[in-house]
Amino acid sequence: MQAIVQHNKRQLAAAASATADTASTTPSPAPLLVVGYVMKPSREEQLSTAGLLHLLPQDGLSFMPFDTTRLPEKQGHIDILLHKGSDELVTTADGGVVWSDRLLQLQDWLKTRFHICVVDPFENTKKVLDRLQLSLMLNQLKHVRLPSGVVARAPRYIHLDSFDGAGLPDILTSAGLHAPYIVKPLVACGVKHSHSMALVLLDDALQQLQGQVPVPAVVQEFVNHGGVQYKVYVLGEKVFVTPRASIPDVQLNSD
């Protein structure tokens, strides 16, 4: 009987030792980050269909819809807020856009939640909503000389409140602008008229856009670029480049 007791003790000790060894060699589970996302239903459906908004934990991430019509503190813990702020824009009387009241309330709530990482910060997102502000920002960047000797720069532009003006040709000339032009509303995204643009091939054709393209507007020089534009996304230290179809090249008569 004493021998059986001693044997059982040895077995228990061996099992305990094996369990301790296993625990010491098994890596602890990675922390789970909860990502709350704010976007319009159609965008949510598109991303969910692509498997990008998984609710169950995967690779240390779990996504949770964040409803801006409800109190934020009633929706559970989040570590990251992923938003498409341009889905929450409201048009003003002067043709501009501002954040919706519910998005402003969400921003106020976030001011005291320093642990939540906002992607992207709203103050950074706001810079790309206005094409004039974006043009001013790009103009402040230094010109880049490529290995081929070509200098990369922002396109020349002017800001117009109306296409009907006797001094318009002189304004274009003083800005170094010559046809073709691309004419864009100041609002870059989030509202229907933000993509109401026009390609102008003749210097004297701008006045014909009165009532056709929303004002205020930005008139930019158009440069042939092979019908391809490159969208660049930066996430931390990683840079992603995606080619997208763009306006085809235009052929102008030399005469």
Helices and strands, with pairings:
Elements: H1 2-25, E1 33-38, H2 41-49, E2 61-65, E3 80-83, E4 89-91, E5 97-99, H3 101-110, E6 117-119, H4 122-125, H5 131-139, E7 144-145, E8 151-152, E9 157-160, H6 168-174, E10 181-185, E11 198-200, E12 217-221, E13 228-235, E14 238-245
Parallel strand pairs: 1-2, 1-3, 3-6
Antiparallel strand pairs: 4-5, 7-8, 9-12, 10-11, 10-12, 13-14
Q: What Rg do the Cα atoms give?
A: 28 Å
Nearest-integer average pLDDT: 85
Number of strands: 14
Percentage of residues assigned to helices:
10-25%
Question: Roughly what fraction of the amino acids lie in strands?
Answer: 15-25%
* Alpha plus pi helix count: 6
What general form does the structure show? elongated
Describe this protein's structure:
This protein starts with a helix and ends in a 10-residue tail after the last strand. The protein has 255 residues and is an alpha/beta fold. Mean pLDDT is 85; it is low at 1-12. The chain has helices spanning 2-25, 41-49, 101-110, 122-125, 131-139, 168-174; strands at residues 33-38, 61-65, 80-83, 89-91, 97-99, 117-119, 144-145, 151-152, 157-160, 181-185, 198-200, 217-221, 228-235, 238-245. The protein has a four-stranded parallel β-sheet with strand order 2-1-3-6, with no helix packed on it. It is built from six helices and 14 strands.
